[in-house]
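Figure 3 (text version): structure tokens given as input.
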């Protein structure tokens, strides 16, 4: 009986490999059926990137003002008060959670 099935074994193995690769090509991590999910992730990451770039530009501008050559007294005072928790007696301090 095994001799009758022996010529079919390469065909069965090849069909099995084709089914395996087609299945993973459709449903795998980078499969064709998950294209919309990848687009959603890409859009979210693009928004996050633009927010981080905006934040970076703001931080670079603030750091530039704190350098020795162009020290901004107002910014320095603001940062010192914020870091140390001090305020002028005439100031109103409203603390908010970031």
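Below: residues designed for each position.
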């Amino acid at each position: 009986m095994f001799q009758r099935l022996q010529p079919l074994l390469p065909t069965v193995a090849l069909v099995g490999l084709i089914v395996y690769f087609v299945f993973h090509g459709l449903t795998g991590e980078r499969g064709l059926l998950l294209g919309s999910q990848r687009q959603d992730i890409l859009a979210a990451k693009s928004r996050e990137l633009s927010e981080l770039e905006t934040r970076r530009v703001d931080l670079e501008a603030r750091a530039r003002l704190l350098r020795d050559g162009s020290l901004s007294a107002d910014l320095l005072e603001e940062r010192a008060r914020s870091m140390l928790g001090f305020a002028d007696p005439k100031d109103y301090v409203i603390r908010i959670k970031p």
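The chain has a mean pLDDT of 84.
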